[in-house]
Amino acid sequence: MKNQKIFPGLILLGFGLYFYLEHSQIDILKEYLTWPTLLIIVGIAFLGQGYGGKDYEAILPGVILTGFGIHFHIVNRLSIWPDHIGIFILIISLGFLLRYQRTGNGLFHGVLFLIISIILLFYNEVLQWLGLLENKAGNIINLWPFLLIVLGIYLLFFKRK
Question: Which residue from 42, 72, 89, 96 puts its CA 20 to 30 A from 137's CA?
């Protein structure tokens, strides 16, 4: 049975705490009281609804909002943290995989996004490791986005039996 009180309760609690801390003028917390924190609060509310309220469809937006909020906090504070589109796709992948764990659907989406994020995050390293950039085969490798387009068109317009 889904408990519909968890999400609004966590939103009110989180926003109330956020605005109280903002008005209290605590210097050590000022750098954390920004818009990414609001993303994290809403994401945690969705996760609370998803896991605590057994509304498992709320897990995906919860992971995405929490992950994006954490990313935006970390990206300017930690120099080794990648600021790359692959991180966003990895967070979305994690959301699908965690939702799959509870609902049993979304595995294909999660794995697909995971593969794309790995390709995007480690593209240059893999090509250097394989030695493809030096062998002028790098031009052929640049065609992989077209492969994604063709696969997408196939999945959209051709029925599988």
Answer: 89
DSSP letter assigned to residue 115: H
Asked if 97 and 106 count as a contact pair (C-beta separation under 8 A), the reply is: yes
What are 94's two structure tokens? 């994690």
3-state secondary structure the chain: CCCCCHHHHHHHHHHHHHHHHHHHCCHHHHHHCCHHHHHHHHHHHHHHHHHHCCCHHHHHHHHHHHHHHHHHHHCCCCCCCCCCHHHHHHHHHHHHHHHHHHHCCCHHHHHHHHHHHHHHHHHHHHHHHHCCCCCCCHHHHCCHHHHHHHHHHHHHHCCCC
Does the CA dihedral 76-63-112-151 come out positive or negative?
Answer: negative
pLDDT digits (tens, 9 = 90+) for 21-44: 989 888 888 888 999 999 999 999
Contacts of residue 103, Cβ cutoff 8 Å, sequence gap at least 6: 56, 57
d(CA 85, CA 83): 7
Q: How far is CA 141 from the centre of its chain?
A: 26
Taking alpha carbons only, the member of 114, 117, 34, 26 closest to residue 77 is 34
pLDDT band per the 50, 70, 90 thresholds, residue 125: confident
Q: What is the pTM of this model?
A: 0.81
